[in-house]
Design brief:
1007 residues, 16 helices, single chain, six-stranded mixed beta sheet
Length: 1007
């Protein structure tokens, strides 16, 4: 094997790594080994980057290929990484291998006399590992199915890496050989540092590296749920009957908003979803990123930077950065199928994955993934306890006496509350090709997801939404359940070229485009006002109206796109690394008008009922406009806006002394709209001892108003809690800040949020197998953009006049209206050991966080200034920010490997959270148990079975903000139905959902 110099490598002089070498040395009875993460690249043998180097203290390195000496071995069957360490001990032979790779396999026992190479081959028999020797006798372990990593050398991220030069030897000859080998080390960058080759331990900020194996072991079928299961600082809350939020859940980090976390793909800025959460859910008033658009089968790893990083990456990186790294293997792959369902017998889910790597000659790769997921809906709705027909009489004890005989046999399971019906197809392509001494690279991602969720049931006794016709009965006599059908298309592509030079500098030029679109169609619905139009204007009979009234309509569409052009330059000096860059961005946002039937009011003109007095005393004359359940958007609400951004950054890292790394960054951003902003970051890591490091960071940050917050506007039906505690429908307009209505009451343009981040942490390597990190963080956000309460008439004369002219009963606006403070602690501990005849890997991870709204304010000089601030921002708005996400999340997981079996057991604790929704209810902490068992039938084929929420745990039952509650009796006093309401569990916030236990089986074939 010939190791060649990589064209995209920056190898710093050996002196830069003396401190790292000192940290990693562990003497073991005449030999030592270093733990490191790097990559040796070769035309014949690209090795994985996360490598574990075992180096023998001998008088000189003997070429193993030429050595025929028989040695006596005594190595028991055990995990492959441990067996390789034992091999090195017994041979005093340098071995280079991937720790993360090797620990996945079980080595065979080796007893007796063998040559070194024969012993290795016997030990690794039955695994996918090969022992390979180069011309100098350097022994390394490779995967038969080669997995490339260097092609994701992104400007800011890669895998956790500790680049340790191979310079340790006992004589001059060995030192010279190692200096040569060091020149062939390709450094891998880590999110949070632009300096390639920085280990997670040496970074001044906390970074989690979540491997594809760790994601798969969760047993979840969505990337958002996978992240939530293994990263406690990440939350992926569920809600129901919340329009588009049912299809695209909000993802948050450290208890902040979905739009305060930046998402990257291969280190390139990811576009947001076009949806903005305007209903009452976690993340209300924000727009995040669709975490499920990328299939898990396409992901090599996910890096989670848990620290403010706006000075490095720009807007949104207040809570942190999530970088999704795509697979880049040039051969091999897998096909997998998985089926599961909930204990209630619903939510049946089928997932099919196919991944394959292809070599593009000797110089490139192309890796592609196809994913299909079909998920049936779940339903945990309670019974419909209120009267569905006219004629009920309330008795003295509050029960209802049925009047209409149809009430006695009416179905009571009228609602659908749970996960939406969903089908998704996704395609991902990741590629790279060495060209002209550099690398041409790119990726394509595409997903199409169709969802169907339900709105509120419209019963017979609902003249506004289900108008009474001339025969005295409702348009749809038995009522109807409107469905919200969404089609979400997400596409992105990237291409770029990067090149490294002999003077330890590199350049990277790239272009990225991303677009997310959502099309809404409302089905199983009617436009109530159109029924009156057909009756009074067209002269149709009641039966004719029921037969011809349209039952579906296209509501509207949303489109958001992002174009980014990046130029990055890095330069390594002896003890100093410098990075410079520039970025041009264009954001675009569009709202597409719906069909006329979806939004028009057919029986009202200029606020006056057209058919008043024409009903002859029977039936309705004025019904609700637009399609019930999810109304449309008219041409006046259409949007086509864009925004340009230009940014420049500079950051640097240096060893001020051997044990102290200092890094600094400064970034300038200029936004068309609110102007410019400058942010900085200063961070450091001090290795107090070989096993203890302290790290800390201080930074400023910002988040620009999203395009949706600037330009989204519509009128929707929102169900809010009335004075009597019941839910009532209200037409609520969301008005953009440059709208006529907003301008008429003096609401100013939005400006950026500003943040100050502080963090301090400790890294403690307790033993070779036990590691502990604890990080404290504090995040202050000023001028936080929040959506106001639903402001109705009677609060101010100026607002009353504006609402009257708009036709909305209430209005809500995006405002810079809150200052918040967030504090928390992250704790991560790992322990790798042997036990029960196999190997055990334990991980304990916890997050404790608390956010307080320390100030609320309205724009000075506006029409809202005279309204009490507690009316503009209700207690519920404050509660959403402070209380709707768990204050603590704790995860304890164990991975057990024994021969052909692996077992993953995980305990997930979701702490208390409080929801305010017409009342206040605190939901108790719950512990969910997940288990997954894998059996490897042979090297290629494996089967798995498992359960998420094994013991069928549900959140506390709901006691507030319910709907359709009541008890109905017949004339004999017999109870027809008695129900506390349809919302058995809170529809507003459910951190782990409310579906119960999920059981699944699957099979996977690797090739």
């Amino acid at each position: 094997m010939r190791i060649r110099q990589s064209n995209d490598v920056n190898c710093a002089p050996l002196s830069r790594h003396k401190k790292l070498i000192k940290k990693k040395l562990n003497l073991h009875s005449g030999f030592f080994f270093l733990t490191c993460l790097f990559k040796l690249r070769s035309k014949q043998l690209p090795l994985l980057p996360a490598s574990f180097v075992i180096y023998g203290l001998t008088a000189g390195q003997v070429a193993i290929a030429a050595e025929k000496q028989m040695l006596q071995f005594d190595i028991k069957a055990q995990r492959a990484d441990l067996a390789l360490i034992e091999f090195a001990k017994q041979t005093k032979q340098t071995v280079i291998f991937s720790f993360e790779l090797a620990k996945q396999y079980q080595a065979q026992s080796v007893f007796g006399f063998y040559t070194k190479l024969d012993a290795l081959n016997a030990m690794l028999e039955g695994t996918e590992l090969d022992a390979v020797v180069d011309q100098q006798g350097l022994l390394s372990i490779k995967l038969k199915q080669v997995d490339r990593i260097d092609n994701n050398m992104i400007k800011v991220s890669g895998v956790s890496a500790a680049v340790v030069p191979l310079l340790l030897a006992a004589n001059t000859q060995a030192l010279a050989e190692d200096q040569s080998a060091e020149q062939n080390i390709e450094k891998i960058a880590v999110v949070g540092s632009r300096v390639a080759g920085r280990s997670v331990e040496d970074l001044p900020v906390p970074v989690d590296i979540l491997s594809a194996e760790a994601l798969e072991n969760t047993g979840q079928t969505e990337v958002g749920r996978m992240l939530q299961a293994i990263a406690p600082s990440f939350n992926f809350s569920s809600s129901s009957i919340s329009d588009g939020t049912d299809a695209l859940r909000p993802a948050t980090l450290r208890g902040l908003g979905p739009d305060q976390t930046l998402v990257l793909i291969n280190g390139k800025r990811r576009h947001q979803a076009s949806l903005i959460h305007i209903n009452t859910s976690v993340g209300r008033g924000t727009a995040g990123t669709d975490m499920n658009a990328i299939p898990a089968a396409a992901i090599k790893r996910i890096e989670v930077l848990r620290d403010g990083a706006a000075a490095q990456y720009g807007s949104d990186a207040i809570a942190g950065v999530i970088n999704i790294v795509l697979k880049d293997a040039e051969e091999g792959g897998k096909a997998a199928i998985n089926y599961g369902e909930y204990s209630e017998g619903d939510g049946e889910t089928v997932t099919v994955d196919f991944n394959k790597g292809f070599a593009l000659g000797d110089e490139g790769y192309l890796n592609t993934t196809i994913n299909y997921r079909d998920r049936a809906p779940t339903n945990r709705a309670g019974l419909h306890g209120s009267c569905q027909f006219y004629g009920c009489t309330e008795l003295d004890d509050g029960t209802l006496l049925a009047g209409d005989p149809r009430e006695l046999t009416a179905p009571r399971d009228t609602f659908r509350i749970g996960d939406a019906d969903s089908q998704q197809f996704a395609l991902t392509v990741n590629t790279g090709y060495e060209l002209a001494g550099g690398e041409l690279y790119g990726f394509i991602t595409y997903s199409n997801r169709e969802n169907e969720s339900a709105a509120f049931f419209r019963h017979n006794a609902n003249a506004n939404g289900n108008p009474v016709l001339q025969d005295g009965d409702a348009t749809i006599p038995m009522g109807f359940l409107p469905k919200i059908n969404t089609v979400i298309d997400d596409v992105s592509y990237n291409f770029g070229y990067k090149k490294s030079f002999d003077n330890d500098s590199s350049i990277d030029l790239s272009y990225t485009y991303g677009e997310n679109s959502i099309d809404y169609t409302t089905s199983d619905t009617i436009n109530g006002s159109y029924a009156n139009y057909l009756r009074y204007d067209q002269g149709l009979t009641a039966d004719e109206i029921r037969a011809t009234i349209p039952r579906s309509a296209y509501a509207y569409g949303l489109e958001l796109s992002l174009q980014t052009l990046n130029l990055d330059y890095t330069k390594d000096y002896d003890n100093f690394s410098l990075a410079l860059g520039a970025e041009l961005r264009t954001d675009e946002f569009r709202i597409l008008e719906g069909s006329e039937y979806a939004y028009r009011d057919y029986d009202t003109f200029d606020g006056v009922s057209i058919y008043s007095g024409l009903n002859g005393g029977v039936g309705s004359v004025d019904a609700a406009s637009g399609t019930q359940g999810f109304g449309g958007s008219d041409p006046a609400s259409s949007v086509d806006e864009s925004r340009d951004v230009i940014s420049f950054y500079m950051d640097a890292e240096t060893y001020v002394i051997d044990d102290v790394i200092i890094s600094g960054a400064v970034r300038y951003d200029n936004y068309k709209g609110f102007g410019d902003t400058v942010n900085f970051k200063l961070a450091g890591n001090w290795s107090v001892t070989e096993d203890v490091s302290l790290r800390g960071a201080l930074s400023t940050g910002f988040r620009a108003p999203s395009m949706q917050q600037l330009y989204f506007n519509n009128v929707s039906t929102q169900f809010v809690v009335g004075d009597d505690g019941s839910l009532v429908a209200e037409q609520v307009g969301t008005f953009r800040n440059d709208s006529t209505l907003a301008q008429s009451i003096g609401i100013p343009k939005l400006k950026e949020e500003k943040s100050q981040n502080r963090s301090l942490g400790i890294v403690y390597n307790v033993t070779d197998n036990i590691n502990l990190t604890i990080d404290y963080y504090s995040i202050d956000i000023d001028d936080r953009i929040v959506i106001s309460n639903r402001l109705g008439k009677g609060l101010s004369d100026t607002l009353d006049a504006a609402l009257e002219s708009s036709g909305a009963g209430a209005g809500q606006f995006f405002l810079n209206g809150a200052d918040t403070e967030t504090e928390g602690v992250d704790l991560v501990a790992t322990w790798n050991t042997e036990g029960l005849g196999g190997t055990l890997d334990f991980t304990f991870a916890a997050n404790f966080t608390k956010t307080d709204v320390v100030d609320l304010f309205t724009p000075s000089g506006s029409g809202l200034e005279t309204i009490p601030v507690e009316d503009v921002f209700s207690a519920q708005e404050t509660s959403i920010i402070e209380e709707w996400q768990p204050e603590d999340r704790i995860n304890l997981s164990a991975l057990y490997r024994l021969e052909d079996w692996t077992v993953n057991l995980s305990l997930n604790r979701y702490g208390e959270y409080t929801v305010e929704d017409g009342g206040r209810q605190t939901y108790g902490a719950e512990i969910l148990t997940d288990v997954k068992v894998n059996y490897f039938f042979n090297e290629n084929l494996s089967f798995n079975i498992g359960a998420n929420n094994l013991f069928d745990v549900y959140p506390d039952k709901n006691t507030i903000g319910n709907s359709r509650s009541g008890t109905i009796v017949d004339a004999s006093g017999n109870t027809i139905v008695s129900s506390p309401g349809v919302f058995t569990y809170s529809r507003r916030s459910a951190p782990f959902g409310f579906n119960g236990a999920y059981y699944y089986v699957g099979a996977e074939y690797k090739f």
